[in-house]
Specification:
Belongs to the LysR transcriptional regulatory family. The protein is an alpha/beta fold and about 290 residues long. It contains ten helices and eleven strands. The chain folds into three domains: about 5-85, Arc Repressor Mutant, subunit A; about 90-160 and about 270-290, 3-Layer(aba) Sandwich (D-Maltodextrin-Binding Protein, domain 2), CATH 3.40.190; about 165-265, D-Maltodextrin-Binding Protein, domain 2 (3-Layer(aba) Sandwich), CATH 3.40.190.290. Strand 3 (about 90-95), helix 5 and strand 4 form a beta-alpha-beta unit.
């Protein structure tokens, strides 16, 4: 079946007019009429009847119109994917990454750039919850966050990168430093400095405290982990940070570090993308590169 004839026929039905279809397709009305007749000859039956004010589908025309739209959509999708595949040699991919996670990604970015030098990577920094919302809204194709996701984002697809301890960091005068294995309850009534709203760890901590009936005194919030650490070093309160972040910082000798029990809190880092949504080849190449690492 001639796809061009099918396209002209579908456009005529959508516009309810040969004249308007011709204008939309940038051809003459006689060309549209000729292509529709060609399609009718191929099918062997009339597809349209001219009526006052437009056209009316025959029973056979109804079938051809319905299936024709589906066929044209498939062809359009095929062309898009082929164009997208060719675009692996050029283009831009925007990846959402929380500041606390970016410490992992220098080797990955280097590996992706080596495999796809024509694709420019742009990193959009935001908290994990915000990145999930941006993916859900279609503003980003892929990103990184920490699990579990907020309930309204639970439908997003995830691939776990790793699970890591969450640590308490503070000066020796903090009450929990006298405990061998401090937990979240040891922060009840105590000053803490923590990641700000929009960061998944912020939500996880508040959820855990609420369930345990713990009420720490939050004296400061920030999206910059080095700033949180400096506040802890100044004695303002206990910083709560993932261990991989601490491993990349120079800790002052006066700071005490203790892991929270895994049953209370872990930092589970994962790739995020929208389930069931079309994903560009550049985004797929990014995820494939991530899996290799």
């Amino acid at each position: 079946m001639d796809l061009r004839a099918l396209r002209y026929f579908v456009e005529t039905v959508r516009r309810n007019s040969f004249t308007q279809a011709a204008e939309a397709l940038h051809v003459t009305q006689s060309t549209v009429s000729k292509m529709v007749r060609q399609l009718e000859d191929e099918v062997g039956q009339p597809l349209l009847r001219r009526v006052p004010g437009g056209v009316r589908l025959t029973d056979v025309g109804e079938v051809v119109f319905t299936r024709g739209q589906e066929a044209l959509a498939v062809v359009h999708g095929l062309h898009r994917e082929l164009d997208d595949l060719a675009a692996l040699s050029r283009g831009t991919l925007v990846v959402g990454i929380p500041p606390m996670v970016n410490v992992f990604f220098s080797p990955l970015i280097q590996r992706f750039r080596a495999a796809h030098p024509g694709i420019a990577l742009q990193m959009r920094e935001a908290g994990g919850d915000v990145i999930g919302q941006m993916i859900a809204a279609g503003e980003l194709e892929v990103g990184v966050g920490t699990l579990p996701l907020a309930p309204e984002l639970a439908y997003l697809q995830t691939a776990l990168l790793g699970r890591y301890p969450v640590c308490l960091v503070g000066t020796a005068d903090m009450a929990w430093t006298r405990l061998k294995r401090p937990g979240l309850a040891s922060l009840d009534g105590q000053p803490v400095v923590m990641p700000g709203e929009g960061f998944t760890l912020h939500r996880h901590l508040h959820d855990a405290w609420r369930l345990a009936g713990v009420r720490p005194q939050v004296v400061a919030e920030s999206g910059q982990w080095d700033f949180l650490l400096s506040m802890a070093q100044a004695g303002m309160g206990t910083a709560i940070l993932p261990q991989p972040v601490l491993e990349r910082l120079q800790l002052a000798p006066e700071l005490v570090v203790r892991r929270l029990p895994a049953r209370e809190m872990v930092w589970a880092v994962a790739h995020l993308w929208a389930r069931g949504r079309y994903m560009s080849h550049a985004a797929r190449a990014w995820l494939a590169c991530c899996r290799q690492g």
